[in-house]
Amino acid sequence: MKLSKEAVLARANAVCKNTLMETLDIEIIDFGDDFILGKMPVTSKVYQPDGVLHGGATAALAETMGSFAVQILMHNKDVFVRGIEISANHLKSVKEGFVYARAVYLHKGRTTQLLEIRVTDDHDNLISLCKLTTIALPKSK
Question: What are the residue boundaries of the Thioesterase domain, all occurrences included (predicted)?
Answer without folding.
Answer: 51-126
